[in-house]
């Protein structure tokens, strides 16, 4: 029998309900796997007591025949989510020691659905990064390796700890958040599934804010079915987030028929980038062939403003971040610098923020400050918001032509080595999000599905982009792709 | 548009982040790289386009102007680096 921690959410759910296993056994298996995987540095804060207490409650509910959708299923929570009484630092020094007095809506929804929290997961500081190298906890490590090499690879970012933990079977699934690709890129780098829902599906309340008009939470899982199960538990209207939608939450799992006959899948010509590795091009061609064989109709489409998405993102996201991160001033929570004789409140702010924020966060806060400053607001910020409107219109136009979903590569490469990008300028790192960032700017749902391997044995992902609020349909297309690719590879255990 | 050290220092001041003088040249250089990347936006014809306010067409909800929460002073102050007599404490602001 498969080790318990290697089960999918759906398998474990069914085994729990059949009485074959208990949540306590399942949770213990995960906790043991976590303790044996410190080399991956995926978990930043472990919460075994909370986990075992919730597992015991779940076992009682299952016995009583009162099991909600995720009853007894052990998961990890990204450090960006505030969890009551458990450190929630957004992987930043500035939130060292911060202990929330409240629980984020999404993590509360998961707890209400019976899920068992195993701990808090490593990530890039304030979710700013694509390699998990900006974390105050140090790098999270990808469980996958190139061939027989022992070079440590990035699990991607910002949800790098989540991706590493799910891929290494430390938990059954994990929460992630995605502002420019932070669920989908790490999912692709680690051979797992990750979906960013439509903006407004998940409440942002209690999630440390990076760029409020782009941030969305979503599940990172071992299968498309698991993504459907967990997304349904996470989302729903929340009066505490004024951008959270009042639309009812559909039964996403019920949408998984695998039948995509007659669906129209768009292939955007602008996603064929100069210098794209052959392997990515081949993977994409394979994906197209598989969708067609499954009965979908493929059409070439154009999203003409694609190349301006990253520059627009690198105005809008830092602008919003500079505003959101103004709250970290050493007054109400977190780190405060030690002051010298004669220092006033301005010195307190400046020293606290210089000590508390890492280099990438400082860089983005300052870029944001610059593009919002008097004299540049129109030239940068307003122009970027206009370009964003055009990017959204590109998608609206193709959906109006009858396109149901859009198929693209998830990332421009496989996972790279930790430290390999250190000497590159920041823009090179930003290019990781070239295929994912358009989706955030347009507020659409997007899912990354593992679809193949590169010639060094590393997983590669394909992305499907759906119509707003049509996550069910999108998940079904992803399910058909998953069945066609038959991707089942797991990293060989070295940790 | 190129950012010099003085501009970099001014931006750091506005962002309330202390940057040592000897770190300013490298910071200005990084800004220039990123802004050079952003400059591409100048190529786009945005004539007559409204800047996006909300990605999902929605009217932000209003609620009744009533007290729904409160009486949680201890919880509000529990994470403060310096709290005294029920208040957040900061260095002297007014002489």
From the structure above, extract its key features.
heterodimer; A: 495 residues; alpha/beta; Amidase signature (AS) enzymes; eleven-stranded mixed β-sheet; B: 95 residues; 3 helices; 32% helix
Provide a short characterization of the protein structure:
The complex is a heterodimer of chains A (495) and B (95). Chain A has 495 residues and is α/β, with parallel strands linked by helices.
Helix/strand structural class of chain A: alpha/beta
Radius of gyration of chain A: 21 Å
Instruction: Give the count of helical stretches of chain B.
Output: 3
Q: Assign the CATH superfamily of chain A.
A: Amidase signature (AS) domain
Main-sheet strand order of chain B equals 1-2
Distance separating the two termini of chain B? 41 Å
Outline the low-pLDDT stretches of chain B.
none
* Largest sheet descriptor of chain A: 11 strands, mixed
Principal-axis shape of chain B equals: flat
What does this molecule look like?
The complex is a heterodimer of chains A (495) and B (95). Chain A is 36% helix and 13% strand. By secondary structure, chain A is an alpha/beta fold. Chain A has a single domain (1-495), classed as Amidase signature (AS) enzymes. In chain A, strand 2, helix 4 and strand 3 form a beta-alpha-beta unit. The model of chain A has no long low-confidence stretch (mean pLDDT 97). Chain B is mainly alpha-helical. Chain B has a domain at 5-41. Helices cover 32% and strands 4% of the residues of chain B. Chain B is built from 3 helices and 2 strands, in the order H-H-H-E-E. Chain B has a two-stranded antiparallel sheet. The longest helix of chain B has 15 residues, at 24-38. Chains A and B meet through helix 9, helix 10, helix 11, helix 12 and helix 13 of A and helix 1 and helix 2 of B.
């Amino acid at each position: 029998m498969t080790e318990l921690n290697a089960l999918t959410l759906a398998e474990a759910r069914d085994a729990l309900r059949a009485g074959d296993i208990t949540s306590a056994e399942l949770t213990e298996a995960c906790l043991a796997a976590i303790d044996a995987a410190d080399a991956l540095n995926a978990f930043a804060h472990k919460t075994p007591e909370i986990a075992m207490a919730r597992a015991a409650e779940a076992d009682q509910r299952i016995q009583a025949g009162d099991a909600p959708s995720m009853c007894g299923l052990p998961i990890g929570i990204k450090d960006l989510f505030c969890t009551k009484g458990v450190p929630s630092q957004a992987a930043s020094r500035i939130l060292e020691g911060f202990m929330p007095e409240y629980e984020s809506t999404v993590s509360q929804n998961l707890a209400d659905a019976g899920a068992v929290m195993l701990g808090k997961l490593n990530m890039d500081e304030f979710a700013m990064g694509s390699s998990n190298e900006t974390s105050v906890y140090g790098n999270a490590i990808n469980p996958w390796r190139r061939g027989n090499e022992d070079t440590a690879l990035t699990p991607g970012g910002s949800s790098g700890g989540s991706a590493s933990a799910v891929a290494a079977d430390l938990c059954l699934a994990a929460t992630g958040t995605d502002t420019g690709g932070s669920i989908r890129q790490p999912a692709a780098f680690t051979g797992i599934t990750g979906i960013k829902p439509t903006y407004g599906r998940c409440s942002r309340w209690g999630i440390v804010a990076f760029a409020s008009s782009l941030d969305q939470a979503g599940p990172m899982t071992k299968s498309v079915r698991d993504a459907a199960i967990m997304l349904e538990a996470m989302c729903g209207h929340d009066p505490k987030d004024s951008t959270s939608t009042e639309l009812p939450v559909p039964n996403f799992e019920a949408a998984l028929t695998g039948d995509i006959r007659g669906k129209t899948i768009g292939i955007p010509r602008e996603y064929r980038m100069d210098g794209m590795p052959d392997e990515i091009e081949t993977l994409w061609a394979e994906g197209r062939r598989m969708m067609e064989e499954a009965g979908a109709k493929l059409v070439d489409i154009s999203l003409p403003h694609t190349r301006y998405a990253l520059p627009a993102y690198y105005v809008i996201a830092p602008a919003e971040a500079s505003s959101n991160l103004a709250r970290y001033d050493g007054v109400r929570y977190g780190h405060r610098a030690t002051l010298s004789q004669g220092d006033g409140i301005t010195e307190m702010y400046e020293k606290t923020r210089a000590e508390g924020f890492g280099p990438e966060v400082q860089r983005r806060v300052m870029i944001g400050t610059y593009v919002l400053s008097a004299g540049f607001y129109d030239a940068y910020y307003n122009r970027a918001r206009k370009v964003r409107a055009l990017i959204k219109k590109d998608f609206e136009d193709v959906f109006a032509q009858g396109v149901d979903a859009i198929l693209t590569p998830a990332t421009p490469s496989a996972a790279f080595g930790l430290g390999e990008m250190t000497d590159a300028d920041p823009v090179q790192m930003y290019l990781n999000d070239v295929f994912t960032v358009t989706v955030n700017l347009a507020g659409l749902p997007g899912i990354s599905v593992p679809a193949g391997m590169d010639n060094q044995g590393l997983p590669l992902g394909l992305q499907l982009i759906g119509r707003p609020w049509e996550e069910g349909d999108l998940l079904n297309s992803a399910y058909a792709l998953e069945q066609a690719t038959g991707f089942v590879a797991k990293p060989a255990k070295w940790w | 548009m190129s950012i010099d050290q003085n501009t970099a220092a001014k931006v750091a001041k506005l962002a309330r982040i202390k940057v040592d003088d000897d770190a300013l040249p490298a910071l200005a250089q990084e800004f220039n790289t990123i802004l050079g990347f952003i400059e591409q936006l100048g190529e786009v014809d945005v004539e007559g386009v409204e800047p996006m306010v909300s990605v999902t067409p929605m009217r932000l909800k209003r609620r009744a102007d009533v007290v729904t929460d409160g009486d949680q002073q201890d919880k509000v102050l529990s994470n403060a680096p310096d709290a005294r007599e029920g208040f957040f404490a900061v260095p002297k602001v007014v002489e």
